[in-house]
């Protein structure tokens, strides 16, 4: 990846809050609780999100241009992984919705 232009730097700084990556870690921790994770070994995704936050802080807040490529490479990989999870959860939800839609009205 080449050098970022001033416009690209501004777009990156103005368009993304690194705090949102920490919020994503919190969301993942919520999912862990819902899935019955005993909390002894965090999922790889959690560590990857924290690494992404570290890269984003370095790039966005301190202008570490040498880490821009690693930032977007990891972000792309995680986006693909999370999309796969989203599709799996959507299929699970669809299956459960199909079943609950068949519930007789007199059963609560």
Q: Helix amount, in percent?
A: over 70%
Using only C-alpha atoms, the radius of gyration works out to 19 Å
**SSE arrangement, N to C:** HHHH
Overall SS class? mainly alpha
Total count of strands: 0
Cα separation of the termini = 58 Å
Tally of DSSP helical segments: 4
| Overall average residue pLDDT | 91
As residue ranges, the low-confidence spans are none
Major sheet size, sense and barrel closure? none
Strand content: under 5%
Global morphology: elongated
How many domain units?
A: 1
Q: What does this entry look like structurally?
A:
By secondary structure, the chain is mainly alpha-helical. It has one domain. It is 73% helix and 0% strand. The protein contains four helices and no strands. Helix 3 (44-62) packs across helix 4 (68-101). The longest helix has 34 residues, at 68-101. The termini are far apart.
Summarize this structure as a short list of keywords or feature phrases.
single chain, mainly alpha, 0% strand, elongated
Topology:
Layout: H1 6-15, H2 19-34, H3 44-62, H4 68-101
Helix pairs in contact: 2-3, 3-4
Gist of the model:
By secondary structure, the protein is mostly helical.
């Amino acid at each position: 990846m080449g050098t970022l232009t001033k416009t690209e730097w501004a777009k990156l700084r103005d368009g993304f809050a690194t705090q949102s990556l920490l919020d994503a870690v919190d969301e993942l921790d919520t999912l862990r609780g819902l899935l019955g994770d005993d909390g002894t070994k965090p999922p790889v995704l959690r560590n990857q999100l924290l690494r992404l936050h570290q890269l984003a802080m370095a790039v966005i807040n301190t202008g570490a241009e040498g880490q821009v490529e690693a930032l977007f490479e990891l972000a792309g990989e995680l986006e693909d992984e999370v999309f796969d999870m989203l599709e799996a959860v959507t299929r699970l939800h669809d299956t459960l919705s199909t079943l609950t839609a068949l519930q007789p009205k007199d059963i609560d």
